[in-house]
Amino acid sequence: MSLQRKLTRPLSAAEIRRLVQPYLSWEVVVNTPQAALDALEVSARHKVSYWDGLVLHAAEFAGAAVLYSEDFSHRQRYGSLRAINPFRD
Questions:
Q1: Quick one: three-class SS letters along the chain?
Q2: Please, are residues 10 and 3 in contact by the beta-carbon 8 Å criterion?
Q3: Buried b (16+ CB within 10 A) or exposed e, 57-68
Q4: Closest Cα to residue 51, out of 67, 31, 70?
Q5: Fewest Cβ atoms nearer than 10 Å: which of 4, 46, 59, 85?
Q6: pTM of the complete model
Q7: Average pLDDT of the segment spanning 26-38
Q8: Phi-psi region of 68 (alpha: psi -120 to 50; beta: other; left: phi over 0)
């Protein structure tokens, strides 16, 4: 793992576990065959690529209100989602 080998001060397994632990509560959305078909509609509706449509569909399916991504137009609404670029000022 890069956190243990590539840093100037490598992290211990305990430190990595402490950093990763909060992410375990995140909901994982599985892309089902139906999601793949739904993403086609989402991509056509919002004029985005199929893969971006799949991301939008997954976020909407999970009930997200905000999608943090640098790949979508900042503050743009995509149905019930608002895209926010976390790297913008």
A1: CHHHHCCCCCCCHHHHHHHHHHHHHCCCCCCCHHHHHHHHHHHHHHCCCHHHHHHHHHHHHCCCCEEECCCCCCCCEECCEEEECCCCC
A2: yes
A3: bbbbeeebeebe
A4: 31
A5: 4
A6: 0.74
A7: 93
A8: beta
